[in-house]
Amino acid sequence: MNIEKTFAMIKPDGIQRGMVGEVLSRFEKKGLKIVAMKMLKIDKTLAENHYAEHKGKSFYPLLIDFILSGPVIAFILEGPNAINAVRKLVGATDPDEAEPGSIRGDHVLFTTFNIIHASDSPESSEKEISLFFSLEEIFNYNLEIQKSIFK
Known about the structure:
The chain has about 150 residues and is of the alpha+beta class. It has one domain (about 5-150): Alpha-Beta Plaits, CATH 3.30.70. About 40% of the residues lie in helices and about 20% in strands. It has eight helices and four strands. It has helices at about 10-15, 20-30, 45-50, 60-65, 80-90, 105, 120-130, 145-150, and strands at about 5-10, 35-40, 70-80, 115-120. Strands 2-3-1-4 form a four-stranded antiparallel β-sheet, sandwiched between helices.
């Protein structure tokens, strides 16, 4: 079984809309484990590092301004094939393509305000985790259900 860690972040609009509990509960109900979490106000340097792959694209300035507009909740999820599981729960970036039942499919109308970010690969997950968390901030513990699954 491929146990992975992946990065996710509830964006300013998710916090402003009161979606934190809804978003986190979807991951927990799926069986993913939260191993790190914090609320923070991203500074411009962190925002530019986080979104470096989009630099030069037409939407980049709006993306940076938006992520700087309010606090975010950054967190790390762990579980079997966590990266893929989280991406499916989050849904497509374009809400018109997001499946009903996904976070974006159920709660998002505009691509710009899409509630949540989730790493899309092992490489981006590793990069984003290291941008937002130190090793000391990541916890290692077992969920009760894991005791019977991972004997």
